[in-house]
Write a structure and sequence with these properties.
The chain contains 6 helices and 3 strands. The protein is mainly alpha-helical. Helix 2 crosses helix 3, helix 3 crosses helix 4 and helix 3 crosses helix 5.
Length: about 140
């Protein structure tokens, strides 16, 4: 074999070996996964500090949409969430009235379709922003 041809052959084999090694190293790499822990409704409500039942209802609606992935929620969903918050039954909230109050303020809107044969609501963009500002009015 001629020296130039030999060198070319060696370079070719070296490149092939480097590619194989690169693939092997790549397959053994363990990607560090960022595990997003779920925020409980109790933790979320503690961080928000709503002042009254109207704000609590809005915050729970926000939680249901953002953390539980609901596109709309009804009184049953709200009641279930408040039970998870361990709000005593004696402090039952009239969710329809609280939703109407939020609608009047522009923070919620009635959903186009009923959910489980009940009236349903969803947050408006201003409602989402109001919760995200921890219930501080826009300046």
């Amino acid at each position: 074999m001629q020296p130039e041809k030999e060198i070319q052959e060696i370079k070719k084999r070296l490149n092939e070996l480097e590619e194989r090694l690169s693939k092997l190293e790549g397959s053994n790499k363990t990607e560090s996964k960022v595990v997003m822990k779920r925020v409980s409704i109790t933790e979320f409500m503690r961080s928000q500090k709503p002042h009254d039942d109207v704000q609590k209802t809005l915050a729970v609606g926000y939680y249901l949409e953002k953390y539980e992935g609901l596109t709309s929620f009804n009184a049953r969903d709200l009641e279930s969430a408040f039970q998870r918050l361990k709000v005593p039954k004696s402090q039952t909230i009239n969710f329809n009235y609280k939703a109407i109050r939020n609608i009047q303020q522009g923070y919620m809107d009635e959903a186009n379709e009923k959910k489980d044969k009940q009236k349903a609501w969803s947050l408006t963009k201003p409602g989402e922003e109001y919760v995200e500002r921890s219930f501080q009015k826009e300046k």
